Amino acid sequence: MNLVIETRQLSRHFGNVAALDKIDIRIRQGEFVAIMGASGSGKTTLMNILTCMDTLSSGQLLLDNEDVSAFDEDQRRLFRADKMGLVFQQFHLIPYLSALENVMLAQHYHSVVDLAAAQQVLTQVGLAHRFDHLPSQLSGGEQQRVCIARALVNSPEILFADEPTGNLDEQNEQLVLALLRQLHAEGRTIVMVTHNPELGKVADRVIRLQHGKLVENTTDDMVAV
Ligand SMILES: Nc1ncnc2c1ncn2[C@@H]1O[C@H](COP(=O)(O)OP(=O)(O)OP(=O)(O)O)[C@@H](O)[C@H]1O
Predict the structure, then answer these.
(1) Residue ranges of the ABC transporter domain (predicted)?
(2) How far is the CA of 9 from the centre of ligand 1 (A)?
(3) Distance from CA of residue 75 to its chain's centroid?
């Protein structure tokens, strides 16, 4: 199975703080991986690096077998737009645009607009009856499903989700989790950061960080540090 993410001795320092310290991880196409750990353990830093929002201090990052460690900001932005779909705890929807327009805006950044494709992803997340609703007319769970549709519209290689249910009640959390499970069953690669052990259980495996080090990585061909 193809490796879509590989880090080799990846470190990120902020001054004398080692937010990430010589991390080796490998994520294969089609895997659903949860990145977990206590507050301050390095989850956000790792997510920011994997999504090319931040750069590493040393080591290597290979995405889709391409060494992106030396990419400049423009290359990283293009790579992100091309290969990644991002879902955050805060929905970041444009309040005066409908669900459909919010999804199409993501296509706009990708310089192709395709109404049918936007309708299709919203239908896929169970919102065929909500195309014309504004974010304020949608429940929290529905808004997050719009965000997931927006992340999927450019058919990304990897879906990254940072605390995707952090702002949702129990019922909506279950809906979003069911959707992530469904996307995984359809073959999507998903990398999710979460504090929540219940969310961790839906993933194939957990990458656990502690004080910037990898302490758990539950596949057999990887050595936990
Ligand atoms: N821009 C920065 N400048 C200085 N230190 C930073 C910066 N970003 C993160 N850190 C430090 O790096 C460490 C890891 O932070 P990070 O935000 O990755 O943790 P986290 O696991 O995501 O925490 P939380 O669950 O609370 O969001 C922390 O000690 C943090 O204080």
Answers:
(1) 5-225
(2) 19
(3) 19
Structural contact between residues 186 and 125, judged by C-beta atoms closer than 8 angstroms: no
pLDDT tens by residue, the chain, 225 residues? 688 999 999 999 999 999 999 999 999 999 999 999 999 999 999 999 999 999 999 999 999 889 998 889 999 988 888 899 999 888 899 999 999 999 998 886 666 778 899 999 999 889 999 999 999 999 989 999 999 999 999 888 899 999 888 888 888 888 888 888 988 998 999 999 998 888 888 899 999 999 999 997 765 444 333
Which DSSP state fits 225?
-
Q: Report the separation in Å between the CA atom of 35 and the middle of ligand 1, taken as the mean of its atom positions.
A: 14
Cα 162 to ligand 1 centre (Å): 14
- CATH number, domain with residue 212: 3.40.50.300
Whose CA is closest to atom 13 on ligand 1?
A: 19
Question: Measuring from atom 5 of ligand 1, which residue has the nearest CA?
Answer: 14
Residue 201 maps to a domain? yes
Q: Do residues 169 and 148 touch, judged by C-beta distance below 8 A?
A: no
Nearest CA residue ID for atom 3, ligand 1: 14
Q: Give the Å distance between the CA of 153 and the centre of ligand 1.
A: 30
For residue 121, what are the domain limits? 32-56+77-217
Q: Which of 21, 30, 29, 17 is closest to 49 using CA atoms?
A: 21
